[in-house]
Each structure stands twice: as structure tokens, then as C-alpha cells.
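lol ok so funny story. i was supposed to be doing the assay writeup but got distracted and ended up predicting the structure for this chain instead. priorities right. anyway since i did it might as well share w the group, maybe its usefull for someone
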Amino acid sequence: MRPPALLVGGNPQTLSVGRRLAALGVRVYGLGTGRELRHSRAFRTVFLPGENDERVRTDWLLGAPGARLAGAVLLACDDVALTLVARNRERLAERFELDISDPAAQLDMLDKHATYEIATKADVPTPRYWMVGGADELLARRDEFAYPLLLKPLRSHEYQARFPGKFRTARDGGELVAQYRAMGEAGIECMLVETIEGPDSLLCSYFTYIAEDGEPAFHFTKRIIRRFPPRQGFGCYHVTDVNPEVRDVGLRMVRAAGVRGLANVEFKRDPRDGTLRLMECNARFVASNALVAAAGIDLARLVYRRILGEPVRWPRTYREGLRLWHPTNDVRALLALRRTGELTVADWLRSVAHGRQILPYLRLSDPGPALARAAGRVSRAVTGRVRAIG
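and the output, tada:
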């Protein structure tokens, strides 16, 4: 029997990782993974104590509940999980099998300001950014900034645990001060970042795995076709490509940060000069993992086997033009872009009229998560409508 896998946090990346490992014959368990995964055949059990609470997850892993899974391969699938593993690595390593990592580098990648500082020193282009020392300094300097301006939380997972979306936008000085104060009252630290204009199709990513000697095990690139909500949400349509420029700049960033293990770097091409500018970095499995695996780089199995010391052959090639599609959110993106005149129904149909699409939740052999997700959306829609009528 192979050791079980304990996947901590994340959704849909956790579902993708769990399905790949279950097909390998691994017993898969989830901790704080999202309620829909309880309906997946890939998971033996999904535990949801505190769901996104770092302290509750840590106490579970290091306490009596986690002791029942001692010897399991522990994989971090979201930022909360990555944070708790980095902060408690030595204690967790006494109980679980862990992948290689540099905890300091992982924590730097979770902090937007630290990430951008590393990029600046490594000559990796970023948008212009500013840190301010409080509302009074912001008020005094508000005319210095170029609007619209993004207020990016330093630690995205702390913001997303309380608010929808990934950041806030300010169109002028008054709105900037109001948004900054609101985030401060919520206990969210943020920095100010220049807006890189242009469509979401200018977004692209680099993936790799950095071994102990600092060398990359593989190279993989993809780009975004659409996000929802446009220009501020999460990707709802992705496509694989082979982009040497994204590979080279991404690898330079990963090496400068000192990351070991999984690494993902996101960029946006600046339409003003064509420069790739850093958006963010991740040192874990990410939401597009199902696309990476379908393209031929099965990160879940490769990392699992490597942790156990089994022979691993990293792929040198992968499928180009393969697409990952979130149909519901992509239809919502169509409606939003159609209202602004940026996309027609005919153009949208042409963009999705391709061969096999990878659907992150729906699989005929494991329909539970997709059905549970659909039922949840219907329930929320009905509840909202009833409240509106009431």
C-alpha cells in the first residue's frame, strides 16, 4: 500500500490533485478543501475544521486528529496551507512526508511587497508600486499616483477570506483614501500598484519545479483568454502555449527568490512597450493544475513519487493549444464584455469552438463535485431572489 496523501486547502486544484493520486491507487484525504470535494469519489474523507483558518488547520495537523494520518504525504494546495507548512515545517516533518522547500522563500512569495522587491533586484520588470506608512501619509501623497490605482493586499489569502475578488481599485485620490482606510479597518495590509491596462489575454504564466541544486525539472507556459470578472477576477479560460520569453523571465524570478519545489510566476504584457511585468508568484499547486496535468505534466503524481524517493522522469514536452474552461464563469465574462463592446457572441463562440476542453470540476467518472457546485449556485440564486422579492 502506498502512503496516503493529505491535501490541505485549495479548490479546484485540490480536486485535480486528488483525482490524479486516487487513479494511482493512493488513499486521498482532504483538510479544509471546500465542501464540494466531499462528493468526490477520489477522496476517502474530507475534514473541514475551520475551513480557511490557519490556526485551526495547524492544531488539527499537529494534534490528535492529524496523528491518525501520520506518515501521509502532506501537500499544500492554497496559500493558507503553504503558510502553515512554512511556519511549522520542522514539527510537521516529524509526522508527515513533506516536499522540499525553502520556508523563507515561500513566505516571501506570499508577501506581495517582498515578491516585488526581489523582482526589482533581479531585474524582473514589475508595475510601479508604492508602500505608504498610513492614512495620513497617503492623504499627503495622493496626488503623486497615477490613476486608476490598485490596492493589492500583501497577503492575498487574508483578503480573500473576508472579501470577494483579489484587490481593490481607486479611480481618484478620494476613492484611494476611502478604500485604504476600509482595508486598514479590516486589518488588511496593502500596497499601491500601477494598473497595467489591456485585456486579460495579455496575462501569462510560467510553471516549473526547482530541485535541491537550483535547477528546473521542466518548463511549462500558458496564457489567459478570459477572466471573470474581467480585469480583476480569476481565470475562466486558459490555453497552453510554448513561450520562451515567459520561460526565461519566469525562471530568473524563481531563482532570484530561492524557491525550491513547485513554482508558478504570473505576468501581464504591458501594451505600452511589450514588457512582461510581474503580477504574482506561487510556490504550490494552483487552480490550473488540471490543465498542466492534461497537457502531459502530471505534477501531483510526480511530486508525490519524488517525496517518497521513487524514480521520477520529468517530461520535456507537453501539448500546446489545450484549453481549460470554466463554462459558467466564461458565460458571465461574455455578458460583461458584451456590455462594454469588447466581445460579441459570435467571437465568443469561435473562441470556445475547439477540440477537447478540460473542465476543472466535471468528470463523468466523478460527477459529484460538479453536481454539488451546480446545486450550490442554484440554491444561492434562489435564496437571493427570494430575499429581493421579500
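The radius of gyration is 21 Å. Residues 368-389 form the longest helix (22 residues).
back to the writeup now i swear
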